[in-house]
Amino acid sequence: MDYVFSVRSVSKGAFTNEPGATHFLAVPDGADAPRPEHAMRKTLWYDAVFNASRHGPQDDAPRGDILFYVHGYNTPQETMLHRQRLIREGLEAKGFEGVVVGFDWPAANMALNYIEDRLDAKFTAFRLVTEGIANFARMQRPDCFVNLHILAHSTGAFVVREAFDDADDRPGVAASSWSVSQVMLISADVSRGSLAGDSSKSSSLYRHCIRLTNYHNPFDDVLSLSNVKRIGVSPRAGRIGLPHDAPGKAVDVNCGPHFDANRAAYAGLKFPAHIWYFNDPVFLEDVLHTMRGDVDRHEIVTRTPVGGALTLRRAP
């Protein structure tokens, strides 16, 4: 079973590429995409996800982990669900016992729909917090604490940044206690400068997380300034990394050497330098250690210091 909450509209019994009401879905293993008939009652869905997140000895303060996966632009629902399953299966193979939840915002299956996708992302982003993070934060129980994490790909990083910023402007949400443990960005399609410590665009993001990890790849041609589909915006954090004045809770991991050493394994993927993360066991192991927080960020076994910067380890 895969859990998804979708903010797409429904027309003629199918999800569309336009914003709509929130649908809480439990997608069966055999389904190739989320569908309206997979919907559950909101309260039942929350309980199911919360219970699926729990692990550890039941008589010794059991805990839980919920990882929200936020997809990028030009991502049809079939692709979103496939990548969510790759994340779940890859993490479980490394020992993950929590649950992966997909946040499905309206993105069209057209590469040239970049601007409209970003507008839809901005319009629906706040529900990542209001319908997801904040509600699970309120469900914390004395006998089980659940850690909330986010893994955002490409324009999903923009969704997360906008969601946190918008939530802080909404009186009911801003007044409540909510936060996430780990925010992890991959191929982040946000400007490098917007993640500076003094940036108003990311102040809410930094305030409501314990740590932000930015995985970047200098070979990511999708995030290149020369990519006309992206309308020539400023240099992206997913390609060149965090700014030098990022706050102390932010950490950069350069994935370029690891990708370059293993690019033959991903030659069959469309835009391999942008999406290889979902298929890479070393990267997913790094994500698991990041969520666990069991060792210092500089001591995670999948990272090697190179010239003072952290680099994802090359596969043996």
Quick overview of this protein structure:
By secondary structure, the protein is an alpha/beta fold. The chain is built from 11 helices and 11 strands. The protein has one domain: Alpha/Beta hydrolase fold, catalytic domain (Rossmann fold).
Task: Walk me through the structure.
By secondary structure, the protein is an alpha/beta fold. It has a single domain (49-312), classed as 3-Layer(aba) Sandwich (Rossmann fold). It has helices spanning 42-53, 77-93, 114-124, 127-138, 155-168, 171-174, 203-207, 237-240, 256-262, 272-275, 281-292, and strands at residues 2-11, 14-27, 54-55, 63-70, 99-104, 145-153, 180-186, 209-216, 250-254, 303-306, 309-312. Helix 3 packs parallel to helix 5. The model has no long low-confidence stretch (mean pLDDT 88).
The major beta sheet can be summarized as: 11 strands, mixed
How do the SSEs run, as a string of H and E? Answer: EEHEEHEHHEHHEHEHEHHHEE
pLDDT averaged residue by residue:
88
CATH superfamily grouping: Alpha/Beta hydrolase fold, catalytic domain
Strand content: 15-25%
Shape: globular
Give the quaternary arrangement of the chains: single chain
